[in-house]
Amino acid sequence: MLSKIGASLLLLAGAATPLAAAEQEVLMTGLSYFPEEIYVSVGDVVHFVNASEVPMSATASDASWDTGVLQPGEAYALEVTDGMQGAFGDVYTADNTAAGVIDYVNPAPLELENNY
C-alpha cells in the first residue's frame, strides 16, 4: 500500500507530464481555407490539406514558413512555434485572395468552444 507521501508524489509526477501536442486541420478549397482562422497552442501541429481540384499553397505573410505548392490531395504538417507569423495566404495563384490566420496567442472565442 502506498503511503500518503508516495501517492502524492505519483500524483504530482502525473500532473507534471507534458500534454501531447494537438493536431488541427486546415482545408485548402481552391478559393479559400477552412477554417480561415484556427486557434492553437505552441507545439501543436497544423495539417494543411489540399481538398481542391487546383494546386495551392499556404505561405506566411512574411514568407517565414511555406507549405510549398500542394497538389490536390497532398498535405503538409506545420509545427506551431513561438513568435511565428500567423497570417498566411496562397502565393501560388497570383489572383487568389484566400487568406487565413493561425492564432496561438488568444484563446478560441467562447462560441467556438461551445460548438458541439
Commentary on this structure:
The chain has about 120 residues and is α/β, with parallel strands linked by helices. It contains 2 helices and 8 strands; from the N terminus they run H-E-E-E-E-E-E-E-E-H. It has a 4-stranded mixed beta sheet with strand order 2-1-4-6, with no helix packed on it. Strands 3-8-7-5 form a 4-stranded mixed beta sheet, with no helix packed on it. Strand 1 (about 25-30) and strand 2 (about 35) form a beta hairpin. It is globular and about 35 Å long. The N and C termini lie far apart (about 40 Å). About 15% of the residues are buried.
Describe the protein's topology.
Elements: H1 4-16, E1 23-28, E2 33-34, E3 37-39, E4 45-50, E5 59-60, E6 75-79, E7 87-89, E8 99-103, H2 110-113
Parallel strand pairs: 1-4, 3-8
Antiparallel strand pairs: 1-2, 4-6, 5-7, 7-8
Q: Please state the CA-atom Rg, rounded to the nearest Å.
A: 19 Å
The pLDDT mean sits at: 85
Query: From N to C, what is the helix and strand string?
Result: HEEEEEEEEH
Which descriptor suits the 3D outline? globular
Structural class: alpha/beta
Brief summary:
The chain has 116 residues and is of the alpha/beta class. It has helices at residues 4-16, 110-113, and strands spanning 23-28, 33-34, 37-39, 45-50, 59-60, 75-79, 87-89, 99-103.
Q: Main attributes?
A:
116 residues; 2 helices; 8 strands
